[in-house]
Amino acid sequence: MAETLFALDKRNYRDCQAVFRGKRDQEYYLGDFWIEDGSSIDVRSERKGVGAISIIRQRSAAKLFFRRTRQHIREDATDLSVLWFVKRGELAFSNQCGNKVAGPGDFIITRSMSPFFMECRPGADGTHEVLHVTVPTHILRGFVCQDFSTGLFMAMERAELALAENLLTEVFSDNGSIGDTSSRLLVETAFGLIGNAIRETEEMQPVRRSIADRRLEEVLRFIEIHLSEPQLSTAMVAKGCGISPRYLSFLLRLRETSFSELVWEQRLAKAKAWLSSSDPRDISISEIAYGVGFKSPAHFSRMFKRVFGANPREYRGDAGAEEQMHLTAPEPYLDYVGSSSLLQ
Question: What are the residue boundaries of the HTH araC/xylS-type domain, all occurrences included (predicted)?
């Protein structure tokens, strides 16, 4: 459940500099924060923590200002990135690279290691609202590979950004029904969507795909769907994709692989992931072998050991020990390993 980070009105708004970082100055980083005098002052900031990450919803009926200078950076070298989703009003941001004004639906990344000035302006309805996420920069770099050292601005035109905002809002609004592990997974998924949106937006021209590229995509999809079938063959794939076996071999040569190499690599990779994530009490090694298309557990064991240097039983024991170590680690995000790196 979200907690109140700070609440300010006409009586206490001049204390904003002393309270905006929350109890014991645990949120954000050093900077100058102030609120414009006015007849209506109502500022409320609520926080939901997920590991080292904070999801914060801030609403205001007055203009807010924040400044981070080089002096602040020298005094407090906290390297924190903030993801801003503007919901109402405007967010004006300026640094050495120029000025930007974000409106409802826009997205900004700021970083504490670069000086900036920010102004939060209420909209026509007299309200300013943002959902922002504070995340240690080293964590965010695992999802966003592009340079955002001086900030990043995007219009919320990509569906990935809207989906990311929805996921983060769900985690923020949860009253305790979502467990910690699921909350972390949802936050990581949101970060992955943001990274994808940024990467695809920065591509100047999408690569024009040839007919062969599209056919190869169909082949790979067919193999993925039918991977658990022991009788999977070139003839079966070619027929399912409406091409000849000869053309199938040509398409796979474009990928610099053969049919057998591709199928066995995928089967072993999925088996390895399954062994890592499953409990021996729930599913046996034989069931995993058959589940990924091997005709016998013995064949599976031989090929697994040939590729990974340990038989499935030994690997499952090692993976279980490593998982237990991760569960007892003080910071789960520091040892994050993407699940896409399955083949060694």
Answer: 217-318
